[in-house]
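Researcher: Next entry in the queue.
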Amino acid sequence: PVIHRDDHLLIVDKPEGLLSVPGRGEHLADCLLSRLAVDYPEVLLCHRLDRDTSGIMIFALTKEGQRKMGRMFEVKRVKKRYIARVGGEVAEAAGTIDLPLIVDWPNRPLQMVCHETGKSAVTDYRVMKYAEGETRVRLTPKTGRSHQLRLHLKALGHPILGDRFYADGAALAAADRLMLHAESLTLFHPEGGAKQRFECPCPF
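Model: Structure for this entry, 204 residues:
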C-alpha cells in the first residue's frame, strides 16, 4: 500500500516477510524495490527494513530526493518509531538501551553485543501496555545498526515475540511472525524542508 506520493518521495507500507532489496541468488530476487519499480520505474532506495519487519519505508523518485534523504539519515534527522510485542513484563516504564553491536561473523547475518569492537547503538523504549506474559513497547532508535531493536530487547531480557534469530522457547512460539512494526517516520521534506510525519498503523 502507498501511504504518500509526491514529486520526490514514495512512502509505502512494507509487508512482513518481503525483502527491501534483492538478496543473493535467484530465489531472493523478489523484493519491495523490484515490485515498486513495475509502477514506478524511477524508484530509488533510501533505507532498508529487515525482511521480517513490517511497516513504513521511504523511497525516492528523483536523484535529488535520494541524495537529500540519504544525507538526512546520515546526520540522524529522520526520526523512526517502532511498535513491538516482547516476552515477559518489562519492569521499567521507560528507559534507554545503550549497547554496542557488531556482526557475529561465524553466524552471519546474526549480530552480537561487543563492548570492545562494537559500534555505538542506542534505543529508547516506553511501555505501552501489559498483557498476559508479554509487553507492548514503543521503540525510538537513536542509531540504525542491523538487528538493533531485536538484539537490544533480547539483551534487556525481553526478546521480540516470533523472532527466529534471537528468541527461543515460549517467545519464539508465541507468534508466527516477528512482532516488530515500523510505525512512523518524521523527516524534513527534500523539497522546501518542511517537517512531515507519516504513519503506518500497526497490524498486530
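Model: The radius of gyration is 17 Å.
Researcher: Noted, moving on.
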